[in-house]
Write a structure and sequence with these properties.
mainly alpha; Sodium/glucose cotransporter; two-stranded antiparallel ribbon; 23 helices; 67% helix; globular
Length: 591
């Protein structure tokens, strides 16, 4: 059976399940639309939260970053997992006890100000829009390979599907859809790695294969895989795979920004509002971390296996004999080769083949396929360009795995991107409909009108996200997503922490802190990502890590402004005290 048929079977089955669940669990009230009625079990919510968390950046891009950067990509693993521990211990139990449906709702009530609520809505929109760009890009990459279409067409198809089940079912529909999507993701991520681990190292457990011997060349010539990949890297002019090449301060700041940004992500926080009480929040957090660990502990093995396979399949091979997967991805513009020395052999070495992503023209090149053209070739000997976001998708093809495994990976990638996009879309729509329209502009609107505004906001947000998914600020999905974490780190995390643990922070301090924190971070990202090509970053901190500095700006401004303005009202200070009191947490009122 042809690969295309396998792809259609797996995608068709999974999409049918998602849409069926959305229809079955359609939201009938604002409570179901925003918090799924507050009755989701901890086990199901843990699975749904894990799916919501494991976005296209995790599923598609993280292993690609590990494959390309080796040790340097550990910042994603450390930042994202560490941040989830912060989130579940310092924030969500208290926020759930407060009993609001959204993050801006908490900020508006805690800081007794619609002005604070409005600033929080704007921050949520910036964070979620930046994040959802990466998801739409991931959807486009998968669909372009799946259906042999342009990336922009894949983005449009994925956006339409997300709008259908997110706009129709709200949080209730998204929750149960994400349970199904997690099941698809975990099998599609782990099964191929098990196959490849057995081929390369003979270990059925990928984590053991990561530290095992490389036996593909024969057991008698086996060497530790770590030694093999380091040798391959140095032979090609790269630094050792296990060596760090990052600026230490920048790596620390990126890791910290990802960590505190995770704890400030509104689409993850709101997931814990769907369970019955604070006790259920803690159980849900346990299940979530367990489900996330399955994939995060597998990603390093996948990245290393992919790196090994890619080099062995490409380097020093004649282009005329290039494997079919290379041609397939070349057709989508995700891989390119330029014959700098006119010998017909692909040379993959340290350095860039092009100064920027190559532009394609539809002309025959040697035998067939589009031809990359660029007037800006680099002086390096490297002749191969590849987009790191294809590593997970291409890895089963590189390893020669069965066609059904390749189709399963495609389905998993789509599930990862769609699950997070749906969660982000819900936060965007509820921020507009509930926090902006209902709480500020039109307090007298009915539940039905509120949901209508939410669906209108969903459509508008998806249209904008689709545009940036087609024209992303960075072609690397994980990098685009990292910007969203920086924005969350500099706006919501400090404000929520101060709102929970400090009775001294007033509305003036909270508003000033959020504006200064996210304003500094956003300005830094825009300057270095869009307005200049200079890499002369301040103190060597890249745009992905600047949110950590923005967080400190938020804290400092909030405390200084609060010190010179009137303290919060007594009832607000009592509210803060009550949120932190642990007694009766297990019997918290079901909001």
């Amino acid at each position: 059976m042809e690969q295309t048929i396998w792809n259609f079977i797996f995608i068709g089955i999974t999409f049918s399940v998602y849409i069926g669940i959305a229809i079955w669990s359609r939201a009938g009230s604002t409570k179901e639309y925003y918090t799924a009625g507050g009755g989701v079990s901890p086990f199901a919510n843990g699975m749904a939260t894990a799916a919501d968390w494991m976005s296209a950046a995790t599923f598609i891009s993280m292993a690609g970053g590990i494959a390309a950067a080796g040790y340097g990509a550990s910042k994603f693993l450390m930042g994202w997992t560490g941040g989830f521990v912060l989130l579940t211990t310092l924030m969500v139990p208290y926020l759930r006890k407060f009993g609001k449906a959204t993050v801006p709702d908490f900020i508006g009530d805690r800081f007794y100000s619609n002005g604070a609520r409005l600033v929080a809505v704007i921050c949520a929109i910036f964070i979620c829009m930046t994040y959802i760009m990466g998801q739409m890009r991931g959807v486009g990459i998968v669909f372009s390979r799946l259906f042999d279409i342009e990336i922009w067409m894949g983005v449009m198809i994925g956006g339409g599907i997300v709008f259908f089940y997110a706009g129709l079912g709200g949080m209730k529909g998204i929750t149960y859809t994400q349970v199904a999507q997690y099941c698809v993701m975990v099998f599609s991520y782990t099964i191929p790695v098990v196959f490849i681990s057995m081929i390369l190292t003979g270990n059925v457990i990928p984590q053991l294969g990561l530290i095992g011997n490389y036996i593909k060349d024969g057991a008698e010539n086996s060497v530790p895989l770590i030694v093999k990949i380091n040798q391959i890297s140095t032979d090609l002019g790269f630094t050792e795979y296990t060596a760090s090449t990052s600026n230490t301060l920048d790596m620390f700041c990126i890791t910290a920004a990802l960590m505190v940004g995770t704890a400030g992500l509104p689409h993850v926080i709101v997931r814990f509002f769907t369970v019955k009480n604070v006790k259920a929040v803690r159980k849900s957090a346990y299940w979530t971390l367990s489900f996330i660990a399955i994939i995060y502990l597998t990603a390093p093995a996948l990245g290393m296996f992919a790196r090994t396979n890619f080099v062995e399949e490409i380097n020093q091979k004649k282009y005329a004999d290039a494997p079919q997967w290379f041609r397939n991805w070349e057709d989508q513009g995700m891989i390119a080769w330029v014959d700098k020395n006119n010998d017909g052999i692909m040379q993959y070495q340290a350095g860039s083949a092009f100064k920027e992503k190559p532009v394609y023209v539809e002309e025959g090149r040697l035998e067939n396929g589009p031809r990359p053209i660029s007037n800006e070739l680099t002086d390096s000997a490297n002749e191969v360009y590849y987009d790191r976001d294809i590593i997970v998708l291409a890895n089963p093809e590189m390893a020669g795995l069965p066609k059904w495994v390749i189709a399963l990976v495609m389905a998993g990638c789509v599930a990862a991107a769609l699950s997070t996009a749906a969660g982000l879309l819900l936060v965007l729509s509820t921020s507009v409909s509930h926090d902006l329209m209902k709480k500020i502009l039109k307090p007298d609107i009915s539940d039905k009108q509120e949901i209508r505004y939410a669906r209108m906001a969903s459509f508008g947000a998806l249209a904008i996200a689709a545009y940036f998914g087609i024209n992303p600020p960075s072609s690397f999905v994980a990098k685009t997503v990292a910007f969203a974490f920086g924005l969350a780190a500099s706006s919501f995390f400090p404000t929520l922490i101060m709102g929970i643990f400090s009775k001294k922070i007033n509305k003036q301090g909270a508003i000033a802190g959020m504006i200064c924190g996210i304003g500094f971070t956003l300005g830094y990202i825009i300057h270095f990502q869009f307005l200049t090509e200079s890499k002369d970053y301040w103190w060597g901190i890249s745009p992905e890590g600047i949110g950590f500095l923005g967080m400190f700006i938020n804290f400092v401004v909030a405390f200084l402004v609060s010190a010179i303005t009137p303290p919060p009202p007594k009832e607000v200070q009592e509210l803060v005290e009550n949120i932190r009191v642990p007694q009766g947490a297990g019997q918290a009122i079901d909001h």
